[in-house]
Specification:
With 245 residues, the chain is an alpha/beta fold. 51% of the residues lie in helices and 11% in strands. It starts with a helix and ends in a 5-residue tail after the last helix. One of its GO terms (molecular function) is hydrolase activity.
Length: 245
């Protein structure tokens, strides 16, 4: 794919001056690696929904300052097993959590559409932000290990910012780092509410990356949808950039 025409179109209109991207399950196939890691810890991934619920609760407590990053994951693991009827001491919770983290890191991988899309975005000359609801420093390790760091001008981690999507604060901070107004920034992510709707409500252009396929019902107003990042360049050039030309 050539980049001369898209670069001209994007810069000529001035409609889009920056791009913001979610990380997990947008760029990184996090769910697959996380399910495998959970299965390694409990023998299967049948408790995935419970794990997600307990994780979301503990990440919320972390952002609220009720928990410290260094201990949150072990506390979360103890709470998870307690919900399954097993009372772990701290040492055993630590052992199981460390094993889970090892399997998780070994399974990190990018979706095949990620690098071509990032290469195209970088060729446009637009600044790019990563905006993640992750809770701690491991996210920066992951981004670096997968070769993503070179594509981003700024990386926003919820656990560092003190706010998580859909909170406007994290979007505001990303745009401030990039030096671009919210109204001239596109945010792309796999969660309809946290990413696309959250970005729209913050004043950005929200794009929902729905890798799962068609969805029943009417899409919320002001939200664009793609099923793969391979569709993002065409969306940016043909729809977003010319919306008010």
């Amino acid at each position: 794919m050539t980049t001369a025409s898209p670069t001209f179109t994007l810069k000529r209109t001035g409609e889009i001056r920056a791009i913001s991207l979610d990380v997990d399950d947008t760029l990184v196939d996090y769910s697959t690696s996380s399910r495998a890691a959970l299965a390694s810890m409990v023998g299967n991934a049948d408790a995935w929904t419970l794990w997600q619920r307990i994780t979301d609760d503990h990440c919320t407590r972390l952002l609220a300052g009720e928990l410290q990053y260094e201990t949150m994951r072990n506390i979360r693991t103890r709470a998870f097993f307690a919900a399954l009827g097993e009372d772990l001491d701290q040492a055993e919770a630590t052992r199981r959590e460390m094993r889970r983290q090892e399997v998780l890191a070994d399974g990190w991988s990018l979706f095949p559409d990620v690098v071509p899309c990032l290469e195209w975005l970088r060729a446009t000359g637009l600044p790019i932000a990563a905006v993640s609801n992750a809770s701690g420093r491991h996210q920066r390790v992951k981004i670096a290990a997968l070769g993503l760091a070179e594509y981003f001008d700024t990386v926003l981690i919820a656990g560092e910012v003190g706010a998580a999507k859909p909170d406007r604060m994290i979007f505001d901070t990303a745009c401030s780092d990039l030096g671009v107004p919210l109204t001239e920034t596109v945010h792309v992510g796999d969660r309809l509410h946290a990413d696309a709707i959250g970005a729209r409500d913050a004043g950005m252009r929200g794009v929902w990356l729905n890798r799962q396929g068609p969805r029943e019902g009417t899409m919320p107003a002001g939200i664009s949808t793609i099923s793969t990042l391979a569709e993002l360049p065409e969306l940016l050039v043909c729809e977003l950039s010319t919306a008010h030309a």
